[in-house]
Give the backbone structure.
Amino acid sequence: MNKKIILFLSLISFSFLGLSQNPKLNKYTFGEGLKFSGNNKSRLVISGYMQPSMEIKKYAADSNTDVYYRFRMRRLRFRISGDLPKYKLEYRFQTDFSGSSEVGDEANLALFDAYVIYKPSRNLQIKFGQSVPSTENLELTMNSNTLQLPERSRLTSAFAVPREFGIFISNEFKLSNNLFIKPTLSITNGDGANTFNRNYGGFKYGARLDVLPFGKFTNFGQFNQVDIVRELTPKLLLSAAYSMNEGMSSRRGESAGTILYLDSAMKESLPDYSKFGINFLFKYKGFSMIGEFMLSKATVPKDITTRVRADGTTANTFLVNGVQDVENYVKGRMMLGKGYNIQGGYILKNNVSIDARYTHLEADANSFMNNPTFYNRPNYYTLGLSKYLSRGYGFKIQGSITYADLAPGSLDLNAKRINNHEWIGNIIATISF
C-alpha cells in the first residue's frame, strides 16, 4: 500500500510539473473533477468516483428457496488525465481500490488505465499503454459511472476483456456535413491487464470501424448510455469490430498463463481465439437505445498432447463425456458462442430514468459458457429505475431487478441444483467528485 501511495503522489507531482511552474485551479464542477490549467494551454483534471452497492439473488433449489446477499464497493476510482498541446500529447492514469474487475469478477488489480496519446494531426491519434480495447462490445467502451443500469450486461461479462496493453491507432474522417467515420487498428498483448509476468502465446490484432451518419453526439455522448443532454436532433452510432488472438492462455484473453497446453516436444501449443461484434447506439430527446451482438470462435492446434494443471503438473488426458477429445476439451475451457444485448430507456425532465434490457447468450456445445454455476443462463430480463440528483453524473441512485432463465443442470454458489429461474436485485449509488 505504501508503494501505491508513493506512486500516486509521484504521478500527481509529475502532472503538475507538466502544466507549468505555476499551475492554477481553473474551475471545479461537482462530478467533473478539479480542472487545472497552465502555460501553453496545458490542462490537468483530477477526478474520481465511488459506487457502494448491494446485490440480492433468490432462486429455488431442490430442497428449499435460498437468498444470497452481497454488499461491496463496486468501484472506487481515482483518475488523472490531461493534455500538453505543445507536445501534441494527452495522457490518463486511472486506478481502482474496490478489488473488482469491470466485468464483475473479483480481482486484485489496482491499475486500470495508464496510457499516452500522441496526436500528430487534429484527427489522427496514436495511443500507447494499457486501456480499454477498441475491439470489445460498445457497452465496455462507455464510462462506468454513466451506465444506464446498475451493472453491465451479461454479454459484456461473457465476452469482454476490460483492459489490455498495446498500441491503438485511430483516425477520423468527415465525408459530408454530418457523416463521420472513425477506423481504429490495434496490436495488444492479448493477455488482459497488468500482465507483468511471462507472456504466453502471441499478439492480439484488431480493427474497429465507427460510423456516425447524423453527426457527432453532444458532449461526448457516444461514451455514456443515458441521453442526459437530451439530443435536439437524432444521433446514431453504427460500429463493427473484429479481433484475433494468437495463442491464448485463458478463457477469453483476460489474464495470462493460466491455461496452457504442450506438444509432443513439450513446447507450448495454444489455441487461437477470434471475436466479431456489431453495435449501435441511438439517442434523441431523452430516449436512448443500445444494441450489441458478439460471436467468438477458437482454432485448436492438432499437435496438442499435454495439458498443464494449475499446480504446474502435467496430464495427457482430455476427456469429454468419457472420451479422449483434445479439441473439444480445449474449447470447453474457453468462452465460445454468441449473444446479443438490447437495452433502452427514457429520462424524464425530473431526471428520473426508466430503463429495460434483454440479453441472450447462446453457448457452443463445448464452451465454458455452459458452466452451471456462473453461466448456463440463456436469457436475462431487466427493469431499472434511476434518479439523477445532480447535474450530469455527479450523484445518482439506481435500482434494478433481473429475471434469468436457467438451463438444465444449473447450480448456485454452494453447488446446489436450482430450478427454472433466478431473481437478481441490484441497488447502487454513484458519487463523483
Q: What stands out?
A: The helical segments are 2-19, 154-159, 326-331. The mean pLDDT is 89.
